[in-house]
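Sample A.
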Amino acid sequence: MDEVQHKFVDVGGLKLHVAEIGTGPNVVLFLHGFPEIWYSWRHQMIALANAGFQAIAPDHRGYGLSNPPTQPDKASFAEILTDLLSLLDALQIAKVFLVAKDFGVWPAYLLAVLHPERVLGMVTIGVPLKPKRSAFHQYLPEGFYMSRWREPGRAEADFGRLDVKTVVRNIYILFSRSEIPMAAENQEIMDLVDLSTPLPPWFTEEDLATYGALYEKSGFQTTLQVPYRSSGDDPNITDPKVKVPVLLIMGGKNYILRFQGIEDYINNGEMNELVPDLEIKFLPEGTHFVQEQSPDEVNQLILTFLAKNV
């Protein structure tokens, strides 16, 4: 990772940590999800830089090395969108391709529909674009991980029983499975992973140490607020259609496919109403972390998409 450069960019008085590599004329902005940081894009950033692109991956506010907001319990997706626009302005970047995963797909969508002049195209990984954030907790039992983590103090108490590195380890193991993380009434989410369970083979102890060190700095306060507790900050979007080309990459074993209606939404053409210029690629063995699990395949899909749309 030595070739990746790091800097801090001031966005409205908050220091945003940014990793970057490459000097090409076309810029790709990577937006991570939870519990990820810029590092989750390490394989893609190097591949794109080698292909002549400039790759930029910020840590969202309160994640990784980026400063937390002054009021973490009020952090919102609207702030992330503002951060992204300020970042592009500070770096004097007029237009970008977006590559987004997990909750990063929502600010990517907002950027594309509210500021289409800044976006050339978009790749979403693991989560399909939707015009509103889905409230899946309304349709699943109380033990659903999102329901538990939405409850103030519940996840903090659960996570607080373990060291930070073990929390990240457990979430990576849980989210790599094809089943939705669901606790029984007398369980917490962290109890779903036995301490003897090995890491996924594509996620090393060195990777875990990198995540653990950064979460030691940031903690989980902002990261639980966004995405899990920041409901109600959806903007009014008059025209929800995405007018740029979009590639959706889904792992066939991604537990998200078990959420109510998601697989039908992807496969029955409904998504094309929102995204007319849509391409969908399934990687049958792929999990929620398919970009880390199968980097060569994902890199090739992204590069093929970019080559068609530059």
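Sample B.
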Amino acid sequence: MGKTADLTTVQKMTIDTLKKEGKTQKVIAKEVGCSQSSVSKHINREAKGRKRCGRKECTSKRDKRALEWIVKQNRFKNVGEIHKEWTVAGVSASRSTTHRRMQDMGFSCRIPRVKPLLNKRQRQKRLAWAQDKKDWTAAEWSKVMFSDESKFCISFGNQGPRVWRKTGEAQNPRCLKSSVKFPQSVMVWVSMSSAVVGPLCFLRSRVNAAVYQEVLEHFMLPAADQLYGGDDFIFQHDLAPAHSAKSTSTWFKDHGIPLLDWPANSPDLNPIENLLGIVKRKMRDARPNNAEELKATIKATWALITPEECNRLVDSMPRRIAAAIQAKGAATKY
């Protein structure tokens, strides 16, 4: 918890706004993210009309506008690079002053969210798909068997470059990092329903149509028996080349398994992506030394997934579809 002098301009404005709304100091401190004493001192200082003592700021409003423009030009620069550009612009300030001014403006250094890049045609197809599925009930979604492949790495520490953004800018296109599909690593095929997860399948080679059909034969069919028994179900997979191959389509027709039509490049619509994210977050503190230890960690973590988590994720499908319609087919927060 910071002292009163460490409160940013944004935090002070938030405190003033919440105070006017009649919120208690305890509630304000929790929402702002500072100590209750800092809130109390700031409110008392404002009530008495006292100003902060100390040296006058060395930067003007014009300097601050220049700094904000520099940050917004490339949000993935570090403080040192931003400070250098600000100095070149004629501002005399230290690196720490540069950092403080950025914080005063509301900028925080965050790990960027990853979203696929969608072209116009893909957005149109996503929107049409969402409008077609908007009236599906929870019971209908419970009959869908979701699936996906995902990579797991031995090291989870490399998050890539961070991004400077303000509160509410997490979905700003300039603050997003584009995803790369299917990087080479330990690959796993997984499935889930609204009730339980299916068995894991570790993929030893590149997934082509033949390999994928073996996975379906030896893992998907047993998983379907486990998840649905003898009841009818709909299988979901994305449009990866192995999935959309003619021989794979023929395999599904021969086995009498209906497929859920799926828009291209749409991991945000698939609840199993969130389930994989949960597993990877639970594995963050694990430090396997080799591939076999990594597989054992994945198996142990996968076994901890509860039916409640599966049900909650599948129940989110109507909200995902509504979000896709509201975004007119663009990538959503999911």
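B remarks: The first helix runs from residue 9 to 20. Residues 90 and 267 are 46 Å apart (CA to CA).
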